[in-house]
Design a protein that fits this description.
single chain, 197 residues, alpha/beta, Maf protein, seven-stranded mixed β-sheet, 5 helices, 25% strand, globular, binds inosine 5'-triphosphate
C-alpha cells in the first residue's frame, strides 16, 4: 500500500475525507500539525493544488488536499475562499453570516452553495488529479443540529428538509460538495494505485 498524506488541519474535514477514502487502496496518514501552507491562491482549485503540492514535497510522499468554502448569493459569493478566515471560531463565522443576511429574511433571498476542490499531488509536487464539487442550499435564520462542523448548522437542503448538521453522515456524504469531488478523485486514486505505484 502506498502512503497518502491527508493535508488538512481541519478535524471535521479529516473525518469526512477518511470516511470517503476508507476503501481506497492507499494507506492514509495525517500531515504533521506544524506543517502549515499559506493559502495564497485566488481560487479553491489553486489553493487545493498548493496545499497538496507543498505537503507532498515537504514529506516526499503522495498528498491529498481539500480547499472548500461557502458562497452566499446575496453576499456576492462571500465568504468564498475566505470562509475559514471570516472570523475566529465556527460560532463567530456563523454569527457573522446571519448578521450580514439580516435584511434578507426570505429563503429565496438566502440561496448559497458549498464548493470543494480536491487535489492529489505526487511526491515531486506535480498534480496527478483534481476535481471540484458544488452543493446548493439555503442559509437558515438560526442554526439547527449538532453534527458536522463549520457552517453545517446553517446550511439547509430543502429536498431533505435538514441542515448538514442534522442529516445522517452517509446522506451528507452522498450529496455534499466534498462527496461529489471525492467520488471523482477516489476513482482516479484507484487507477493510480493500480498503474503508477
Ligand atoms: P485546511 O486548509 O487545513 O484543510 P481549513 O479549515 O483552513 O483547513 P479551508 O481553508 O478549505 O480549510 O476552509 C474551509 C472553510 O469552509 C472552513 O471554515 C470550514 O469549516 C468551511 N467548510 C468547508 N466544508 C464544509 C462543510 O462540509 N461543512 C461546513 N463547513 C465547511
Amino acid at each position: 500500500m502506498t502512503k497518502l498524506i491527508v493535508a488538512t488541519s481541519n478535524p471535521g474535514k479529516l473525518r469526512e475525507m477518511q470516511a470517503y477514502l476508507a476503501d481506497s487502496p492507499w494507506e492514509l496518514s495525517l500531515k504533521p500539525a506544524e506543517l502549515e501552507v499559506d493559502e495564497t491562491g485566488d481560487t479553491f482549485a489553486a489553493n487545493a493544488c498548493l496545499k497538496a503540492s507543498e505537503i507532498a514535497i515537504a514529506m516526499n510522499c503522495w498528498a491529498i488536499a481539500d480547499d472548500s468554502g461557502l458562497q452566499v448569493d446575496a453576499l456576492n459569493g462571500a465568504p468564498g475562499i475566505y470562509s475559514a478566515r471570516y472570523a475566529h471560531s465556527d460560532k463567530e463565522r456563523i454569527d457573522r453570516i446571519l448578521q450580514e443576511l439580516i435584511n434578507f429574511p426570505d429563503p429565496h433571498q438566502r440561496q448559497a452553495q458549498f464548493i470543494c476542490a480536491v487535489a492529489v499531488a505526487r511526491p515531486d509536487g506535480t498534480i496527478a488529479t483534481q476535481a471540484e464539487g458544488i452543493c446548493r442550499g439555503e442559509i437558515l435564520t438560526t442554526p439547527r443540529g449538532d453534527d458536522g462542523f463549520g457552517y453545517d448548522p446553517i446550511f439547509y437542503i430543502p429536498e431533505q428538509q435538514l441542515t448538514f448538521a442534522e442529516m445522517p453522515k452517509a446522506t451528507k456524504r452522498s450529496i455534499s460538495h466534498r462527496g461529489i469531488a471525492l467520488a471523482i478523485v477516489s476513482q482516479k486514486l484507484t487507477e493510480i494505485a493500480t498503474n503508477d505505484c
